[in-house]
């Protein structure tokens, strides 16, 4: 495994991280989830990402249970706050009340004394950014969290947050967690350049496009019965990818991977990591074999010729915007 610092911070995370969206505490059984986390840890993954909203806290419970056996200093634990955790008017968003209360709840579910990276799961236009940043800063000063980050914020929102933190002498956010993969590249236009300039790193999710970039879905064919796309509980975000033109490009990408002696998933992850502003690509895994295959992506070197070949394929679906 290789490690990178997130933005200008001193926090080093594995180039491949393990997440729990749509899997742990939901689609994946507890024992299987714990086995995947254990294998990831053995292979050098030190970055584990979850969120309070993933199955209303169940993912945090599973991740916390799995990691409890390991020295706390040996891994980087990330979770998030924003989405509803109840039916009350203050059970959502980025108010001081919700942030502080949900941080305490996440600490209890995870069974730890502190969270390494606490992320604002979305931007909250109903709350002043100063209130949100002061709450995060207070949690850092109290030792409840070590760093703060955001997820799916725009370049302008990130820039404003950095400016306020600098003006008010607050701890700055160090990370953004956006979707980023060969098929969804919107952050390249504004978010990534802005973050690189401001010292904010990316810890990207869905580098395999919900499994589409593993090659399991073929143009003109029915989805495999055991796949996520066949599960009505988890396939909402996959459906828009399953167009024949998109899947035809995926087949071409798979051929490029084969020419390099790699799997398509390894190629896809290595492609995201070509960006130095990307500190980690967060994978999901429901089987140990998926973890073992995907961590090998850090060993795959992509030459300029290979990158040009990939760009030619991706150019065929310019303008494609999936639901995510």
UniProtKB/TrEMBL annotation:
UniProt cross-references to InterPro entries, sorted A to Z: K_chnl_volt-dep_bsu_KCNAB-rel (IPR005399), NAD(P)_OxRdtase_dom_sf (IPR036812), NADP_OxRdtase_dom (IPR023210)
Residues in NADP-dependent oxidoreductase domain copies: 16-314
BP-aspect Gene Ontology terms: monoatomic ion transmembrane transport
Any one Pfam family match given in the protein's UniProt record, by short name: Aldo_ket_red
GO cellular component: cytosol
Molecular functions (GO terms): oxidoreductase activity
Keywords: Ion channel, Ion transport, NADP, Oxidoreductase, Transport
Membrane-crossing residue ranges in chain numbering: none
Protein family: Belongs to the shaker potassium channel beta subunit family.
Protein name, per record: Voltage-gated potassium channel
């Amino acid at each position: 495994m290789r490690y990178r610092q997130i933005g200008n911070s001193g926090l080093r995370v594995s180039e491949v991280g393990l997440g729990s969206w749509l899997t742990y505490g939901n689609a994946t059984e507890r024992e299987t989830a714990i086995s995947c986390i254990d294998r990831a840890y053995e292979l050098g993954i030190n970055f584990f990402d979850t969120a309070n909203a993933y199955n209303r806290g169940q993912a945090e419970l599973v991740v916390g249970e799995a990691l409890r056996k390991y020295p706390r200093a040996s891994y980087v634990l990330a979770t998030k706050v924003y989405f509803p955790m109840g039916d009350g008017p203050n059970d959502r968003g980025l108010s001081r009340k919700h942030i502080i209360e949900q941080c305490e709840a996440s600490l209890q579910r995870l069974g730890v004394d502190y969270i390494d990276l606490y992320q604002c799961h979305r931007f909250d236009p109903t709350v002043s950014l100063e209130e949100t940043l002061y709450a995060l800063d207070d949690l850092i000063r109290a030792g409840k969290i070590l760093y703060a980050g955001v997820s799916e914020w725009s370049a302008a929102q990130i820039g404003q947050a950095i400016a306020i933190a600098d003006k008010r002498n607050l701890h700055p956010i160090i990370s953004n967690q956006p979707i980023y993969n060969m098929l969804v590249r919107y952050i390249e236009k504004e978010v990534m350049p802005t973050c690189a300039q401001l010292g904010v790193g990316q810890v990207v999710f869905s580098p395999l496009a919900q499994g589409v970039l593993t090659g399991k879905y073929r143009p003109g064919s029915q989805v495999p019965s055991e796949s996520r796309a066949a599960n009505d509980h988890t396939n909402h975000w996959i459906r828009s990818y399953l167009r024949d033109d998109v899947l035809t490009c995926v087949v071409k990408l798979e051929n490029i991977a084969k020419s390099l002696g790699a799997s398509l998933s390894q190629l896809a992850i290595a492609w995201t990591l070509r960006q130095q502003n990307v500190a980690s690509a967060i994978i999901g895994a429901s089987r140990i074999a998926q973890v073992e295959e995907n961590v090998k992506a850090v060993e795959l070197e992509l030459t300029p010729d290979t990158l040009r070949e990939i760009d030619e394929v991706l150019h065929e679906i310019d303008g494609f915007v999936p639901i995510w």
